[in-house]
Amino acid sequence: MTTRREPTADEPGRPGLVRTVLPNGLRLLLAPAPELPRVAVCVTYGVGFRSERPGEEGLAHLFEHLMFRGSASLPDGRFYEHIRRLGSEANGTTHQDYTDYYQVVPSAGLELALFSEADRMRAPRFTERVLAEQLEGVEAEIRERTVDRPLGGFPWPLLPQALFSLHRNAHDGYGDPDRLKRTTLQDCADFFDVHYAPGNAVLTLVGGFDPAEAFLLVERHFGGIPPRPCPPRPELAEPAAGSGSVLACAEPGIPGTAVALGYQLPGPEEDLNRYLATVVIAGMLSGGGVRDDAGRTWKASGSCGFFGPFDAVSPDALIVAGLLPGEAAPEEFTTAVRSSLARWADGDAARGDVEAVHRRLRVEHMRAHSDLRARSRALGRLEHLYGRAELLDEIPDRLAAVRADDVAGAAQALATARQALLVIEPAPVRRRPAPSGAVGEPGGRRGPAAGRRGGESQGPLPVPPMGRLRQAGFRSVRDEVLPDGLRVAAVEDPRATVVEARLRIPLGSLGLTAPHAVRDLLRHLAGPAVLGALAPTSGAACALRTSPDGQWLEALAHVPQEELEAGLAAVATVVTAVAADGPRPVTGAGDVATASGAEPGQLMERALWQGGGDQDGPHEPVRPGLHGGCLAVVGALSADAAVSLVKQLLPTARAAGSAHTPAQTPWKPGELTQVDQPGPAQAGFLLCSPEAAGSEEEAACYLTTAIFGGYYGSRLAAALGEPGAPAGELLVGRDRFVGLRRAWVRGCTTGADAARLLDLVCRETDRLAQQAPGAAELAQAAEFCAAQMTSVFDSPAALADALARFGALGRPSESITTLPGRLRTVTPGQVSEAARQLFRHESLGGVVLGDRTTREALNSVWARWHRRWGA
Prior knowledge:
- By secondary structure, the chain is of the alpha+beta class.
- Helices cover 38% and strands 18% of the residues.
- The radius of gyration is 29 Å and the shape is globular.
């Protein structure tokens, strides 16, 4: 029998965070936001690399992998069933002092998420087969991260070996793969019993739930797990500061010598003010580099903590890293670092520089932790490490309080801290230190904790059902299409500590025919005549990029509320520049089949525009413009106020010449443009059909695309999973192609499988129109799509991204909230009709890519199906 203890508000002034402790010792943190449709669930265990004793190196990370492979009620990988079903995410990470496991699911899946976490805390299942599989997977991960990539292991896990003396602090947390292979099932069971007791864990919930109901669910699923003794925190205190050491390594194929200078640093639990000042020092190092006494500046990056600030207890570290130019010696870089710190210690840190850095750090912190996943993980981590989850929301104000004198004091302390240097030099042969620890060291493995062994003789429990998906809503929303065709979409989000703005403008045919002209356009917009002419604003940023398909210009801005007008003015300047003087594309396109560095998908998209249609040669170019573009704004201000401000900042008259829809379909129905790709290694095809405006209800089209090939349970996915199916990747979607709405399917594979893959797609295209989905197939797809769409509410930034995408496709902002519900009302007949409209046989055309033999085989398959369809 358990004694119930209701959660209570943590402290006055912070009603959003409640905490309690279950009788078995499990600590519970609740941060409800009932208006949200999703919830993050995170379990933080007090075990990490620094919990490992000699002989256990890498065991914490290996065990993290094992925890996903099965428990008494969810064996053989069934842990992921609800994750896959709901289009959600789950993962785990191992750090120095903790391991966390997190899920982000629709609120309807909260009980399933809690059940799955409780089941593996109660009764994980370990088998020889699973252990062997995970040992193989961990070995591959270690190789990928530390061997196969350039500068693998820089600076972690190499630098700790030079910076620290104690085995717990210094050893490689990945461990040695050969030594890990000696791990037994008994070792795993013992590790679980020692470290995975409920009293050694923090359970954190953030997002859309009712606190009282959530507490009942937690009590139901976690309350019955018996308590076990918790391990004491490991002794981590290092000997008195010394001179440190130098770890010299070598790496072939790197462009220059890489150096990392490490300083031992007391953690926040020992001296929070000094730690915050050191975080600002790290920001100053990253922003302005370091300067030696001769005035020479060196590029550098600074970081508190190997995995970021506030991620470990003492001893933590400040890391200053750089890639040396030319023949520069490591000593020159370290001298410059120490010279910069010495100047700051003498009070040479300009007050304005310090304030600019901590303003930027404040904005970065607030943006990062407005996300459900990041917030749940951070709250659990801070509660475990320092007993103060509320520190997460105090950090911005505490950073704002850092002054130049605080920086001077922190820089003075670094001068006497233990230091170490990691150097990786270019060389023909790779050189690394041997793994730490002794093989088979007696006593290296520990026995089980006293009391009942976790997971022993515990049978399965019934899996709870999923709840009902909730419909999200907006506090206020407004869409307005301006006279030049630019849509402005605004949503009020009270969570937003920073205003998020996204601009998405069609590039016309420029991105397909002249990528170099797109680069010129970006340089022009980022240059002194546009963004560069704006006065810098503290904490605000505006970045420019092109979409992966090259068809959209995107501006991504975030602006502190107090600087809203100046920040949105930056985005408005981009709008004005594109409308007024965006460069026209070059008509001579060159040979798309040999475009340097282009992926097969990009080659086929370019060929679709340049080689098809009713005319010979390329189409008339379509210049960038505002028509069909979207500017989205999400912030803690009313939607009406946001739209009014945007209209005020944009000039009333802007040049015409906006991007438009081509007068004709860019491809010839029934025909395939040929793209030569020498050799059989790469082959593919792209089939497209124009989508008639208003031809079918949007929900039916959305769901039909998913059923065809848009999610894990689609018909194409099932066909690819059949025995003897061709190998390859298939993607299905709907978008705008140079202004034209279209549906498409793309296949990428090798020449050997290309024709069979195209045959499979044609067969399933035919079946989609002829064979309506059954009730179960329809319900599964609708549930997945509706659940996945709720992920746009995970953060204000994600919501702004979605608003811009929806708006650029001509969809109103309200559809983000209404479409999930409408998906569940679509009928089988509507899917069949939508399939006939989206993938009409008589209008399908596209591109084939491969060598001559491959293209002949692809053309033969296409001709056969085209005759069968009578198109």
